[in-house]
Amino acid sequence: MAKIIEFFKLILENALIAMSWVYQNVIKRVFKPILRFSVYNWKAFWKRKWYIKPLSVIYTFFISIVLLVIAIQLNFLWMFGSMPSIDMVENPELAMASEVYSADGVLLGKYFSENREPIKYDQIGQNVVNALVYTEDARFYKHYGIDPYGTAGALIQTAKGDRRGGSTITQQLAKNLFKTRKQKSNGWLGKIPGIKTVVVKSKEWITAVKLEWQYSKPEILMMYLNTVDFGHNTFGISVAAKTYFGVESKKLTIPQAATLIGMLKAPTYYSPLKHPKRCIERRNVVLGQLLKYKKITKVQHHKFVKDSLGLAYKEYNYSEGLAPYFRTAVARYLEKWMKDSGKSIYTGGLKIYTTLDTRYQKHAEEAVNLHMKVLQKRFKDHWAGQNPWLIKANWKSKDGFLPEVIHQCDRYKKLKKKFGKDEKRIMDELNKKVKMTIFSWEGEKETEMSPLDSIKYYLTTLHCGMMTVDPKNGHVLAYVGGINYDHFKYDHVSVAKNQPGSTFKPFVYTTAMEQGYGPCDRITDAPITIKYTEKGKKKVWTPHNADWATSGVNMTLRHAMGKSVNTVTARLTEKVGWDNVRKTAIKMGIKSNLVSVPSIGLGSNEVTLYELVGAYTVFMNKGLHTDPRMVTKITDMQGNVLVEFKPKYKRAISEESAWLMTYMLRGGIEEPGGTSQALWSYKFTHNGNEVGGKTGTSSNYSDGWYMGVTADLITGVWVGADDNRIRFRSSETGEGARTALPIYGLYMDKLYEDKKINLKQSKYPKPWTKITKEHNCRSWMPAVDSLALDSLGGLIIPPDGEVVPIEMPEEEDQ
To answer: From CA 511, how far away is CA 509, in angstroms rounded?
Structure first.
């Protein structure tokens, strides 16, 4: 105990020494003119009996205030907590929304923790200024941050039982800007009831005076009105005017301005949405103040107090406008930059310039909506009232598919906490009908449905992901992460992982090109069984073609890839090595975990559409890989560039292999029986425009894919349900050529028809390096006359070279 007493005694002595030093070296020198009229040293000061001399009392009070200000400013002995520095006062930080722009200059949306849009003083409007000043601080233009009359009046009224604030607008600004009432801003004195109020108020007074020194009155009003909270995540007068009344701040009427300023006293309590009567009463108080200070006439007041609120409320909806999935993906894309730079897109008021082109995006969304609406009806008709999860082989749980899904949903988990093991009670609750809004392709529907029925309804909803990238620089031009952001937030481009099916086969053929094979090399379409060891266990794999038959034909690699023959791909995978296929895919940009197994080439691993599209850009970019890029640069509010995101290239495959693979990809539409031949029914494939691509269908027709490649654009499309046990049952309905390819065709037709985009039809690039391997090879069929019908290929080749499709059965791929 003695040591503790000694410790505190030492602290007290040091405090007195420090205060004496401040007095001798600061007070005497700074306030010497004042000190001439009083006492020059402490000893004389006490001898003169200061307590009976008014001048000495004033002096003591003055000195005490000065010492208190200095102690607070210096946070003496950590008693008072932090104070804003001069730099912070000169450059106050507001949590401001960041804006996201497309490559063609369109504002896509905002990121914010507080939805705020700062405006200048001349944009505010006099109605708002009058309502604020004459309600909150009538002597605003006469004081210098502290209003002695207002403070005294507030104390008197509080003593009478009518508690009211005496803070000036400048003090309130200090509180809003620097969070002076937050616990972390207070020192240890701030933890003592009563004293805390004195400390907080003192800090707000000091900061208010600093603000008055630094800024003009209009600037203080502007800053205040840009910081204040109007409820419902609405900050600042500009956003409030648009949210509650649908107008710019300058166009607010007197009653509208009075409504918004009235809300500032307690935004939740006076909310016009939740408590309209209270809001009107508070508005009328503000109107009374305007009448008192003769800013409105008695006639106006009489009319205004009878007016309704006249709201035109419209809350900012993140899903409004183009590319809500893209904006969410951009936020994820910038996470590392935010961590490294210390900047925040949610509070920094930044301008984020993206690669997205709204013209491409518009056509992509239209193509998805057009085809998915038809496809959903086809899916419903396909199952004809049956549940598409009845096949027990697809159950993961012994209880069955539907119970498994129900047990994972949030509503079931909440009911489980409430009712415990009483499953009957839980299921009774899940079967009760409630009002809800559901998604449909005819628009949102208000309906009554049980939670259990809504689970079944949404399980059978098909989804889609789509992305377009410029292969030269990796710019993401279009990004459709799903069918409706309001109802389905899950991103099927860069988050969802699915089996890519045959869209993974090009990595096998690329590996072969790298090892010396050429498009004209041949492998026989014949049964194959591969023995291998995985994790110490011996396994056997026997792949089959989509029709479960083999032709026995010794076909070229180009023909085999174009027709998507599984047995040839499996045999080639065995020759080049499935681990080499894995390595090639990784070099080309696949970042998902790939298990090295013989089936890798048939898409047995799960990947995202985002990385698959990025990998395909290597073919058109001379063998160089660059990750898809969403953002080009970020600037601050003043337009200073904070960061530029430039493409980084690395060699993935040789230039020769890259060009040979562009020739191979054209095989899907040019080779007899190619799985992309349905594209001939779309206009963009005519007039000499060369197109390549690859279809893909995962096991049991759960996922449909299409990867489309032109000289200028790489586009990927995925279609399926969120749960891969929800699926089509046959190739006639569920293969990628019928689910995903039509979206690509519709989209490309729209792009080439859009004169604003001015996308030119063109041929694939000529070889950009010496090609040492044989290409331009005939497929496996015997030679035929160029004008004759190819009985196996299904194409008529007219003299002018235009390719005309005819109806022929095609071999579906998986």
So the answer is: 5
Per the CB < 8 A criterion, the answer to whether 717 and 743 are in contact is yes
d(CA 783, CA 796): 14
**Residue 578 to residues 591, 606, 695, 811: CA-CA distances in angstroms?**
17, 16, 21, 25
Residue holding tokens 């301008």? 351
The reply to whether 679 and 610 lie within a common domain is yes
Q: Spell out the residues 6+ positions from residue 39 whose beta carbon is closer than 8 angstroms to its own.
A: 45, 48, 50, 56, 59
**pLDDT reported for residue 386:** 82
List strand residue ranges (DSSP E) for 491-630, in order: 522-524, 530-534, 537-541, 554-556, 624-625
Q: How far apart are CA 518 and CA 340, in angstroms?
A: 46
- Are the C-beta atoms of 332 and 362 separated by less than 8 Å? no
* pLDDT band at residue 118 under the 50/70/90 scheme: confident
- Which residues 6+ apart lie within 8 Å of 8 measured at CB? none
Cβ-proximal residues to 737 (8 Å cutoff; 6+ apart), any chain:
675, 676, 678, 695, 697, 706, 810, 812, 813
* Cα distance between residue 704 and residue 560, in whole Å: 20
Phi, psi of 352 (to 5 degrees): -110, 120
What SS3 state is found at 383? helix
- Residue 727's CB: how many other CB atoms inside 10 A? 24
Tell me the residue type at 497.
K
Q: Is there a single domain that holds both residue 56 and residue 139?
A: no
Same domain, residue pair 118 and 65: no
The helix/strand count (H/E) of the chain reads as 32, 22
pLDDT of residue 34 exceeding 50, the answer is no
Same domain for 650 and 538 = yes
For residue 81, count other CB atoms closer than 10 A to its CB: 21
Q: 192: which residues sit within 8 A by CB, 6+ positions away?
A: none
Query: Which DSSP state fits 229?
Result: B
Cα 671 to Cα 793: distance, rounded to the nearest angstrom: 7
Q: Are residues 30 and 118 in the same domain?
A: no
Calculate the dihedral angle through the C-alpha atoms of 149, 153, 154, 157, rounding to the nearest 10 degrees. Answer: 180
Between CA 623 and CA 616 the distance in angstroms is 10
**The two three-digit tokens of residue 667, written as one number:** 């095989």
For residues 530 and 573, give the distance between their C-alpha atoms in angstroms, rounded to a whole number: 10
Q: Would 403 be classed as within a structural domain? A: no
Maximum Cα interatomic distance, the chain, rounded to a whole number of Å:
126
Quote the distance between the C-alpha of residue 678 and its chain's center.
Answer: 35
User: Which range, of 49-53, 329-333, 642-646, averages the lowest pLDDT?
Assistant: 49-53
Write the CB contacts of 254 (distance below 8 Å, at least 6 apart in sequence): 127, 131, 287, 290, 296, 300, 304
Torsion of CA 365, 368, 374, 380, to 10 degrees: -110
Confidence of residue 71 (pLDDT cuts 50, 70, 90): low
pLDDT band of residue 81 (cuts 50, 70, 90) is low
Structural contact between residues 385 and 506, judged by C-beta atoms closer than 8 angstroms: no
pTM: 0.78
pLDDT number for residue 814: 45
- Number of domains making up the chain: 3
pLDDT digits (tens, 9 = 90+) for 621-675: 999 999 999 999 999 988 999 999 999 999 999 999 999 999 999 999 999 999 9
Query: Does the structure show a pLDDT above 80 at 188?
Result: no
Which of the residue ranges 152-166, 264-278, 336-350 would you say has the lowest mean pLDDT? 152-166
pLDDT at 786: 32
Q: What is the domain extent for residue 199?
A: 114-304
In a domain, residue 253? The reply is: yes
Would you place residue 788 in the very low, low, confident or very high pLDDT band (cuts 50, 70, 90)?
very low
Residue with tokens 């026997």: 542
Q: How far apart are the first and last CA of the chain?
A: 82
408 found inside a domain: no
Q: Mean pLDDT across the chain, nearest whole number?
A: 82
Residue-level pLDDT at 778: 67
Statement: residue 782 has pLDDT above 50: no
